[in-house]
């Protein structure tokens, strides 16, 4: 039957191709070989579509159905939307085991990972999400859970029915299985989320009350695993009071009322060697003093405290920025330039976190102008600074050209912008620098120029004031010239080669110092496995003990001669 079937398949295929059986008998030997080849191929090759139609389509249909089912499942999985609320709850609950690991392993990196995840859940943070997380974290109502829910109960999205059912569990009889105690780190983490929610909703009064009670509670705890979390609590605590009425720089501003608590926290953190809280509170105190223009008190704080060297990079950048502002107000421009340069180098330059970078760069530009230097043009071409630095670019052009009238018009035009950036008072000092720049340009352009012409070009009141300004510029080394008081003119000296002076070497030395300081800070910031040296000592001690046992066995004769070279002896 198989042979008949093969012949039927061959005849049918030949018939389809247009050749009959009689024609196959009259073919030559070459044709017979081709026929034999075709007969053999009909056995090996799968049947054609015309001979066996049901078989091939059936297999193809099964494959298509399987592939179609997989594609449909994948399409359905892609089409299913993810609920933002459920995702936020899942993300928050996933951070709780990390806090437990931070406590059990005494590793602050897990706590820092939890804090870095706050911006990702901040947009979906609502009272409903917080209530769901709190009721699931605390199966039985406690004082901490009730205080957390009370802080967000005025929100319209607060689930009152669900919380009411949760409150009813308080009077229920206790179960046989004892509930696991919630760690204080979890309490503080959920409190930080409540602070973030209240600040985003602009509930300043409720946030300041909740933060004040939370700070009082933190003072009763002494756990090193709470350091990084407590530092974030103090940050929002100060932020709420900065926006509470009356606002600074009023002498009765609300920020003044929290100075005592911040100073107490700084003293306690210093005694406990808590570097996270110490760094955070120091920067908050400096910011507090600057908001009310108490520069003397801020300077005393800097002189009587030492900023921790192992502080986080963001805290150190803030400290350098506030220190640079204080030194600039105190006319110590060289130190201010050094601090602000370090702050701008440590600040993030991405679009999402470019606010601090813009503030530090603006102040750095003003300080450079006060020092008599002109900032590099490439600073104003950075994508994250190009738009915000437009007023300062025009300011630099006015100062570099020595245009006094243009400078005054520019200050009046961008008065509100400069006041908002807290650089207005420093920019007003630049008028003398604009006059000096104009005098320097005239000393380079003219071999001799009268004081009267200088008054007309610089817009000065009298020749006496022009003479005083020129004499001061000569004394400060701004220009190389001499004054003729009797004839009333300024005579310029020939300008020498700048590369023959110490100026290029000093600039090169400053750059080398900056690179070396960056290298030292990078080495200090490196992390190494904890107690790794103890493991190495333990392994070395075990190796010495094995060596003593092996030597003892050799001496006592327990090992044969054949056993000596092999085994553990080779490893020694």
From TrEMBL:
Instruction: Specify residue ranges for compositional bias: Acidic residues.
Output: 556-572
User: Which InterPro entries does the entry mention?
Assistant: CSN3 (IPR050756), PCI_dom (IPR000717), PSMD3_C (IPR013586), TPR_PSMD3_N (IPR057985), WH_DNA-bd_sf (IPR036390)
Concerning Pfam families, the annotation shows: PCI, Rpn3_C, TPR_PSMD3_N
Q: Tell me which GO cellular component terms the UniProt record holds.
A: proteasome regulatory particle, lid subcomplex
Domain (PCI): give its ranges.
Answer: 317-497
Q: Where is the composition biased (Low complexity)?
A: 9-25, 63-77
User: What UniProt keywords are attached to this protein's entry?
Assistant: Proteasome
Which terms does the UniProt entry file under GO BP?
regulation of protein catabolic process; ubiquitin-dependent protein catabolic process
Which residues lie in coiled coils?
Answer: none
Q: Which domain of life is it from?
A: Eukaryota
The region called Disordered is annotated at 1-81, 540-572
Alphabetically, the GO molecular function entries are: enzyme regulator activity
Family statement: Belongs to the proteasome subunit S3 family.
Protein name, per record:
PCI domain-containing protein
Q: Which organism is it from?
A: Exophiala bonariae
């Amino acid at each position: 039957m198989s042979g008949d079937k093969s012949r039927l398949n061959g005849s049918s295929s030949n018939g389809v191709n247009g050749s009959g059986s009689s024609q196959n008998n009259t073919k030559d030997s070459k044709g017979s070989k081709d026929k034999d080849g075709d007969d053999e191929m009909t056995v090996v090759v799968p049947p054609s579509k015309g001979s066996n139609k049901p078989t091939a389509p059936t297999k193809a249909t099964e494959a298509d159905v399987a592939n179609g089912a997989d594609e449909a499942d994948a399409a359905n999985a892609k089409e299913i939307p993810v609920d933002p609320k459920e995702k936020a709850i899942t993300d928050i609950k996933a951070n709780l085991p990390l806090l437990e690991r931070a406590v059990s392993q005494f590793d602050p990196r897990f706590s820092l990972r939890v804090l870095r995840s706050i911006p990702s859940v901040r947009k979906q943070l609502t009272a409903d999400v917080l209530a769901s997380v709190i009721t699931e974290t605390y199966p039985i109502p406690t004082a901490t859970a009730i205080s957390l829910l009370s802080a967000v109960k005025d929100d319209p999205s607060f689930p009152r029915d669900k919380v009411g059912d949760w409150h009813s569990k308080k009077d229920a009889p206790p179960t046989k299985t004892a509930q696991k105690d919630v760690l204080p780190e979890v309490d503080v983490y959920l409190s930080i989320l409540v602070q973030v929610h209240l600040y985003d909703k602009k509930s300043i009064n409720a946030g300041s009350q909740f933060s004040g009670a939370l700070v009082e509670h933190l003072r009763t705890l002494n756990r090193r695993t709470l350091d990084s979390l407590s530092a974030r609590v103090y940050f929002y605590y100060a932020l709420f009071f900065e926006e509470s009425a009356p606002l600074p720089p009023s002498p009765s501003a609300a920020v003044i009322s929290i100075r005592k608590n911040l100073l107490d926290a700084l003293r306690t953190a210093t005694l406990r060697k808590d570097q996270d809280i110490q760094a955070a509170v120091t920067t908050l105190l400096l910011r507090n003093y600057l908001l009310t223009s108490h520069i003397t008190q801020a300077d005393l704080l800097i002189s009587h405290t030492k900023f921790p060297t192992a502080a986080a990079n963001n805290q150190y950048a803030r400290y350098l920025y506030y220190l640079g502002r204080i030194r600039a107000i105190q006319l110590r421009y060289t130190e201010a330039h050094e601090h602000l340069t370090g702050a701008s180098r440590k600040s993030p330059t991405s679009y999402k976190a470019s606010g601090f970078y813009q503030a530090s760069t603006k102040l750095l530009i003003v300080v450079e102008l006060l020092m008599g230097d002109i900032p590099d043009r490439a600073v104003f071409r950075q994508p994250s600074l190009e738009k915000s630095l437009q007023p300062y670019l025009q300011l630099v052009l006015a100062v570099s050209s020595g245009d006094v009238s243009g400078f005054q018009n520019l200050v009046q035009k961008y008065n509100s912008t400069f006041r908002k950036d807290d650089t207005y008072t420093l920019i007003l000092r630049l008028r003398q620098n604009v006059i000096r720049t104009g005098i320097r340009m005239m000393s380079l352009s003219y071999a001799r120029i009268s004081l009267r012409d200088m008054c007309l070009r610089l817009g000065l009141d009298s020749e006496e004031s022009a003479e005083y300004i020129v004499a001061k510029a000569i004394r400060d080394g701004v220009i190389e010239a001499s004054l003729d008081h009797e004839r009333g003119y300024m005579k310029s000296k020939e300008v020498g080669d700048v590369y023959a002076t110490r100026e290029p070497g000093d600039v090169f030395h400053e750059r080398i110092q900056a690179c070396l300081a960056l290298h030292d800070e990078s080495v200090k910031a490196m992390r190494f496995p904890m107690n790794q040296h103890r493991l190495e000592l333990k392994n070395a001690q075990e190796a010495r003990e094995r060596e003593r046992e092996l030597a003892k066995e050799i001496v006592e004769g327990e090992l044969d001669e054949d056993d000596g070279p092999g085994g553990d002896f080779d490893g020694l």
